[in-house]
Amino acid sequence: MSTDDTENTPTPGPTPFEQLGGEPAIRALVDRFYDLMDLEPRYVLLRSVHGSTLDDARDKLFWFLCGWLGGPNHFIDRFGHPRLRARHLPFSIGVEERNQWLACMFQAMEEQGIEPGLRTRLERSLFETADWMRNRPN
To answer: pLDDT per residue over 74-113, tens digit each?
Structure first.
């Protein structure tokens, strides 16, 4: 009988960060998300709350998603705990803003060719997070 416990420990599968393709894929997803927000008329409300430039938002979402998806904690290293709800309280977020954010992200994920099973899992998690961010009753 072996005393090595590693034989009975299951090897964890790849993280969503790894499944997506690491930092280059996360950057491409974030860039497509913000490009869509900037270009598509159906995301005009969402775009209007982001100010004149999207550069800062692009970086912060990229840094956040890297860690949230199981990769490097770039956001935490720079800013500490994400405190998502507290950081978004200055912005009026209702159902319509939530829905536009999700639609834009889901479109970006589809256009980036994210595998359907992983995309479905991410969509569920993103919905829960985005819904939690609402700070205005509708």
So the answer is: 999 999 999 999 999 998 999 999 999 999 999 999 999 9
What 3 state SS string does 68-88 have?
HCCCCCHHHHHHCCCCHHHHH
Architecture in CATH of 18-132 = Orthogonal Bundle (1.10)
Half-sphere exposure of 29 toward its Cβ, with a 13 Å CA cutoff?
24
Instruction: Give the separation between CA 112 and CA 92, rounded to whole angstroms.
Output: 29
pTM, entire model: 0.88
Question: What region, left, alpha or beta, does residue 91 occupy, with left being phi > 0 and alpha being psi -120 to 50 degrees?
Answer: beta
Helical spans, DSSP H, in the chain: 16-20, 22-39, 44-48, 55-68, 74-79, 84-88, 95-111, 116-132
Q: State the Cα–Cα distance between residues 54 and 31, nearest whole angstrom.
A: 10
Amino acid at 25: A
Task: Flag the least confident range among 9-18, 39-48, 66-75.
Answer: 9-18
Query: CA angle, 43 as apex, 40 and 46 as ends, to 5°?
Result: 140
